[in-house]
Amino acid sequence: MADTRCQLECEDWIRRKWMPSVFGQPFYRERMLLTSGGVFDFDAVSADKSIVASISTSGARTVSGKNATGKLMKLRSDMLFLLLSNAPRKIIVLCELDMHLLCQREGVNGRTPKEIEFFHAPLPDELALKLAAARKRGSDEVSPSRGLVELPQTKSLN
Asked: Tell me, what's the pLDDT at 67?
């Protein structure tokens, strides 16, 4: 099972250090009421509740170089919950530049809600290296190994 501690560490750094320096107030992980009647646990909510945010450590490409379609779909899901919040300002903070650029292109092409702002929060070098290493370990964990052992044939029930 993938170890997400590094992603959580990056998210915490963005919420505790980067966001207060950019927006001038503290941020907290918080459950908020949605306009649809439900609740959602947001990655970051400003102290005055005027800003609600989702934070992503995902890149726009997989380790093998393919488009990270699943990661983009996760961001689209986050966008829905941001839109369902009452906060006047709705943002997505991305620590990977390639994902930030992809989201900006999507916005220019009319494929993201105009109410949502995208920000790039570059991680400190040490944290960025840890994240890259964690991603590689996660990819290695789910990738087929090069020396696959052939499984024995099973008998047909027919």
From this structure: 75
